[in-house]
Amino acid sequence: MQVKASFKESLVGAIPNLRAFAVTLTGNVDRADDLVQETLVKAWSKSDSYEEGTHLHAWLFTILRNTFYSEFRKRKREVEDTDGSIVAKLSSHAEQTGKMDLVDFKAALTQLPPDQREALILVGASGFTCEEASVICGCAVGTIKSRVNRARAKLTQILDVESGDDFGPDPTAQAILSTNLSDAKAV
């Protein structure tokens, strides 16, 4: 890319005015210097689009202003996380174990008697009340409640679930997560 000497001199000559404008926009000398530098890099890389004889300062100020507002919009969406607490909340559990838990659950569900499976799916998965499920199945509300209770107990036995802690990440993943959380808080 061939850049004319007069363009280079004009860029250098515009720096004080660009810097003054950038300081008024940012209110911070360091950020203003970064903004001017970014403006000059963009102007340099797009020098072929500058039309000779037009007002160079206006072109540079437009680039600076647009760069400032683009960065402002981007920074508005960013969150400062000095202690790592937000990042710690964004961690997610590995999906492999969840997928295998679902496979195990589906297999256990097929082992239930059809009437218990039907009641559990209606009340537990489909969101029907026991009263609505009793109408659908054509039996008493107490019968549905009993079937759901027996189905849950049987699933607990088949899946070898002892407490609510058996759901979610396995003990190894929990240990890693708790270590990462304590490390993030220590920083």
Automatic annotation (TrEMBL):
<dbReference type="GO" id="GO:0006352">
    <property type="term" value="P:DNA-templated transcription initiation"/>
</dbReference>
<dbReference type="InterPro" id="IPR039425">
    <property type="entry name" value="RNA_pol_sigma-70-like"/>
</dbReference>
<dbReference type="Pfam" id="PF08281">
    <property type="entry name" value="Sigma70_r4_2"/>
</dbReference>
<dbReference type="InterPro" id="IPR013325">
    <property type="entry name" value="RNA_pol_sigma_r2"/>
</dbReference>
<keyword id="KW-0805">Transcription regulation</keyword>
<dbReference type="InterPro" id="IPR036388">
    <property type="entry name" value="WH-like_DNA-bd_sf"/>
</dbReference>
<keyword id="KW-0804">Transcription</keyword>
<keyword id="KW-0731">Sigma factor</keyword>
<dbReference type="InterPro" id="IPR014284">
    <property type="entry name" value="RNA_pol_sigma-70_dom"/>
</dbReference>
<dbReference type="InterPro" id="IPR013249">
    <property type="entry name" value="RNA_pol_sigma70_r4_t2"/>
</dbReference>
<dbReference type="InterPro" id="IPR000838">
    <property type="entry name" value="RNA_pol_sigma70_ECF_CS"/>
</dbReference>
<dbReference type="Pfam" id="PF04542">
    <property type="entry name" value="Sigma70_r2"/>
</dbReference>
<feature type="domain" description="RNA polymerase sigma factor 70 region 4 type 2">
    <location>
        <begin position="105"/>
        <end position="155"/>
    </location>
</feature>
<dbReference type="InterPro" id="IPR013324">
    <property type="entry name" value="RNA_pol_sigma_r3/r4-like"/>
</dbReference>
<dbReference type="GO" id="GO:0016987">
    <property type="term" value="F:sigma factor activity"/>
</dbReference>
<protein>
    <recommendedName>
        <fullName>RNA polymerase sigma factor</fullName>
    </recommendedName>
</protein>
<comment type="similarity">
    <text>Belongs to the sigma-70 factor family. ECF subfamily.</text>
</comment>
<dbReference type="InterPro" id="IPR007627">
    <property type="entry name" value="RNA_pol_sigma70_r2"/>
</dbReference>
<keyword id="KW-0238">DNA-binding</keyword>
<dbReference type="GO" id="GO:0003677">
    <property type="term" value="F:DNA binding"/>
</dbReference>
<feature type="domain" description="RNA polymerase sigma-70 region 2">
    <location>
        <begin position="16"/>
        <end position="77"/>
    </location>
</feature>
